[in-house]
Amino acid sequence: LVERMTPFTSTIFAEITQLAVDTGAINLGQGFPDTDGPESLLADAAANITGGVNQYPPGPGVPALREAVAAHQQRFYGLEVDPADVLVTVGATEAIASAVLSLCTTGDEVIAFEPYYDSYPAMTALSGATLRTVPLRAPDFAFDPDELRAAFSARTRMILLNSPHNPTGAVFDREQLQIVADLATEHDVVVVSDEVYEHMTFDVPHIPIATLPGMAERTLTISSAGKTFSVTGWKIGWIHGPSELVAATRAVKQFLSYTAGAPLQPAVATALGLPDEFYTSIATSLRGKRELLSAGLKAAGFTVYQPRGTYFIVVDGRPLGFEDGYKLAYDLPSLCGVAAVPVSVFASSPEGVEAMRPLVRFAFCKRDEVLTEAVGRLAGLG
Ligand code: PMP
Ligand code: GLN
């Protein structure tokens, strides 16, 4: 293994999911729903498979899906997107990889908020660039504008933004996004905006940074069918932005996977046009689950940081005597039959690792009866 990838030989999601399987624990670690997406979506994909839609689709994605992504951005955010500037990818993961690998190289710096999604440091390292982190701190996981400003240098090429934010559940408001936008503009930096949880916010709107004045021309926006339609195993994602940046991303993507999911892409295209009731039901249903799990975690004795978006809740284990979230995450399945992931693995700066040390993340994208059972098990912890 090349040296720059040696810190990334395993992922916490694979490890904790294996542990949950081995111990029979309820897996609230890796974030995946335990019910599949809309019936019509599943039926469409099945019909495509038996109906002969099984050979390579066009490299950039099937036209219907690229058009549907553009229509979705117009419908929800008023964003004008040319379907020619939409690239379909193997999940948001490949979109992130292609963007970083096509635009960043040795000597460049990439800024990400810490804690971060785990592919950001891995792809930054693979590109040869250096990661600069800016902390998000409990309780509200906002950033300090001065710390963000200080992270920029003449070498900064890209900032990786993720709102709604995994793992903290933070949702950046317009004021915070404007600070990012102003700094990105001042330093002529590309913003890669990972918006996979765009339809999962509670009480606050999701604002794509590309909608801020002047930002569409420097922003690559990423999302995924896995999250919106509860089909994480399909791995259909997309990225859109200014033509030159998308063309660069496409150059890398075409040699990573060439293309993806022929029978799935047209099904996702149709699903993107589902009525408003479908989209509002995503957050409505998750809100109840958030209440159920956060009440249970509070009752169990954790300090709970209520998320404003995503399907994750971060808690602090110290009130229960758990100083080390990493140890707690590995012990939790045997302690009470529930699995969660430690947050410190999503940090790499010494201060970030220390700040995240007592925190663990639980996923609540599960059936109510599963969450109720998990809450019952967690109640025995104190
Ligand atoms: N970004 C974030 C913030 C995520 O949470 C995830 C999924 N866990 C991804 C990207 C990857 O999405 P996909 O499964 O579509 O590759
Ligand atoms: N995005 C999901 C999470 O944060 C899982 C992703 C993965 O397994 N790589 O839990």
From TrEMBL:
| NCBIfam families, alphabetized | PRK07777.1
* InterPro entries noted in UniProt: Aminotransferase_I/II_large (IPR004839), Kynurenine-oxoglutarate_AT (IPR051326), PyrdxlP-dep_Trfase (IPR015424), PyrdxlP-dep_Trfase_major (IPR015421), PyrdxlP-dep_Trfase_small (IPR015422)
Query: Which ranges does the record mark as transmembrane?
Result: none
Keyword Transferase attached: yes
- Protein name listed in UniProt: Aminotransferase
Names of the cofactor(s): pyridoxal 5'-phosphate
Give the family, as the similarity comment puts it: Belongs to the class-I pyridoxal-phosphate-dependent aminotransferase family.
A single MF term (Gene Ontology) = pyridoxal phosphate binding
Q: Where is the Aminotransferase class I/classII large domain?
A: 25-378
Alphabetized UniProt keyword annotations: Aminotransferase, Pyridoxal phosphate, Transferase
GO cellular component terms given for this protein: cytoplasm
Read off the Pfam families from this record. Aminotran_1_2
